[in-house]
Amino acid sequence: MSCKDHDFNCVCDAVRNIADLQDAVEDNCPTSCYSNLLNPAFAPGRDTIPFILYTKKGKPFTAFGNIRPDNVSSPVIGMNAFKTPFFRVNSVDGCCATLELLESDVEPDCRKDVEDIICGTERLFRTNNCIEVDLSCFCAIQCLTPELLAPLTGQHKR
Q1: How far apart are alpha carbons 15 and 95 in whole angstroms?
Q2: What are the protein's UniProt keywords (predicted)?
């Protein structure tokens, strides 16, 4: 697939399909086909297919979460600013999507190279930090295993 203009956008289609699969997961039915599709070793609370988007220059797209003024620190441990190439789709409207930033277990450092974040990641965590994107601006999407996502426990990673 190429990044040239077409009547469709493969990244838009892929993200829409991910959203449909995530929406189909039934938390109370661990034997449903959709649950098995998302995570063959079913774990309650896992309803996310994490992914990386690639720009038209072939670089992983990154976003920043928990941004605050320098003099305002978070009273919550684990709520420092972070950079991430990992996302979860929350909703899609046409080719516009609301993506939730997924935070890596790699120590947060906004100056860290994205390749170091990707290669060092063993676990991802939901953050409730979102970004609105135009999916037609991306050339590729890489879906990752749902097992990367930490089970929802109501606690942050740190």
Answers
A1: 9
A2: Capsid protein, Virion
| Residues contacting 113, CB < 8 A, separation 6+ | none
Cα angle for residues 24, 40, 127 (degrees, 5° grid): 60
Rounded distance between C-alpha atoms, residue 132 and residue 15, angstroms:
13
Answer with the residue of higher pLDDT: 38 or 91. 91
pTM exceeding the 0.90 threshold for the entire prediction: no
**Residue pLDDT, tens place only, 17-47:** 888 888 777 555 655 555 555 555 556 566 7
3-state SS assignment for residue 14:
helix
Indicate the DSSP class of residue 149.
Answer: B
Tokens for 137? 């601006």
CB 91 within 8 A of CB 76: no
Q: What are the domain boundaries of the chain?
A: 10-148
Fill in the DSSP letter of residue 115.
H
User: In what helix (H) or strand (E) does residue 11 lie, and over which residues does it extend?
Assistant: helix 10-24
- Residue 77, pLDDT score: 47
